[in-house]
Amino acid sequence: MEIVTRNNFESWMQKLMERLDRQDELLLSLQPSGKAPDPMERIRMFDNQDLCMLLQISKRTLQRYRSIGALPYKTLGKKTYYSEEDVLTFLSGHVKDFKKEDIAFYKARIHNFFQK
């Protein structure tokens, strides 16, 4: 391992930039269209607060849905996240918990949430 000093800082930085450029080119070559991935095409996730606001339910109700296994979730650290697909599936399968006419409203709110 080389110690970076003021004298060799520029050459070290140049090597680092070249390496990052090569990594960038490699990642772009792995993409089928040759363009960088769009972050909006990734899986869309809600946290507890977002989902409570969108569905107009309490945190306790959300916890109950998780506990009975009705709503799939993922945890990262101490935060809980829900994928958009899982939430839409949950809404479709639990119509009795929500008014039927409100299902379309909630689905529209979920889709519009990411349109900002």
From TrEMBL:
Cited SUPFAM superfamilies: Putative DNA-binding domain
Helix-turn-helix domain span: 47-93
Domain of life: Bacteria
Protein name (Swiss-Prot/TrEMBL): Helix-turn-helix domain-containing protein
